[in-house]
Amino acid sequence: MIALAGIAFTFVMVFGGYLLAGGKLGIILKSLPFELMMIGGAAVGAFAVGNSFDSLKQTGKDTLKVFKGSEWKAEDYNQLLQVLYQLISVARKNPVGLEAHIDNPEESEIFTQFPRILKDHAALDIICDTLRSASMNYDDPMQVEELLDKKIDETRHHREHSVHGLQSIADGLPALGIVAAVLGVIKTMGSIDQPPKVLGKLIGGALVGTFLGVFLAYCLVAPFASKVKAAVDDDINFYRAIKEVLVSHLHQHPPKICLEVARQSIPHHFRPGFSELDDALRSLKNHA
């Protein structure tokens, strides 16, 4: 909602100020479709040349994060800690019984309670691979933490591809606006014998290209890139919370201490309250 409000406010301030200053929208509206075709088409085409089809799809999908925000919400963090609590409790009491959960998470009675986590392959890989390695005596906390950091950084790098793509488009849009403006000037020069009134409209139409390139770059696409990056950072915090629990588990801390270490590392706007999490864990025990 805030993103839509920000976009609307930007348009109102820019074009409202233009109208109040005595400007007329007619020349902009007349040139806009053609300028947008040249500038937008060139930007998308250049991005397609430098990226794969999967990257194009991923960037389009990630752009929705401008309006939706992070994939993970506060309730998801609460559920994550519940999943990890149950898994490390099983690992302490019955290491053999843990294998059924980490080898076939789709059939695990623990994972199936929380379908959003079950659908996230990155989260499942971190949880299951780490617990599986620990069961094979690869349980040095320092080494596991280093390995998880590398895996999370790799995930971040992959998720930030859309950010870099949007930022590259933003960087190129002002120059593409100049290209459109130059084409407009070329068109104007072909009508140099026309009266000043006609030439004025032609020159104004050419300058719409410069305006549009700068406006799209700094008022829309660059802010979109920043918002997507913030959402990616929030998503990565979800995997860091998993790491904190699992590393604390390898340090042989009690399960509730493992969860508290992770809970404190969660950003405050997603962090479940201590009492809230404690009530959820008690509810799990009651249903066990």
Automatic annotation (TrEMBL):
Pfam families in UniProt: MotA_ExbB, MotA_N
Record key words, sorted: Cell inner membrane, Cell membrane, Cell projection, Chemotaxis, Cilium, Flagellar rotation, Flagellum, Hydrogen ion transport, Ion transport, Membrane, Transmembrane, Transmembrane helix, Transport
Stretches that traverse the bilayer: 6-29, 166-186, 198-221
Record InterPro entries: Flag_MotA_CS (IPR000540), Flagellar_motor_stator_MotA (IPR022522), MotA-like (IPR047055), MotA_ExbB_proton_chnl (IPR002898), MotA_N (IPR046786)
Domain Motility protein A N-terminal: 5-94
Boundaries of every MotA/TolQ/ExbB proton channel domain copy: 136-237
A Gene Ontology cellular-component term: plasma membrane
Bilayer disposition of the protein: Multi-pass membrane protein
Subcellular location: Cell inner membrane
GO BP terms in the entry: bacterial-type flagellum-dependent swarming motility; chemotaxis; proton transmembrane transport
Similarity annotation: Belongs to the MotA family.
NCBIfam families cross-referenced by the UniProt entry: MotA1 (TIGR03818)
Record-given protein name: Flagellar motor protein MotA
Organism of origin: Marivita geojedonensis
Upper classification of the organism: Bacteria, Pseudomonadati, Pseudomonadota, Alphaproteobacteria, Rhodobacterales
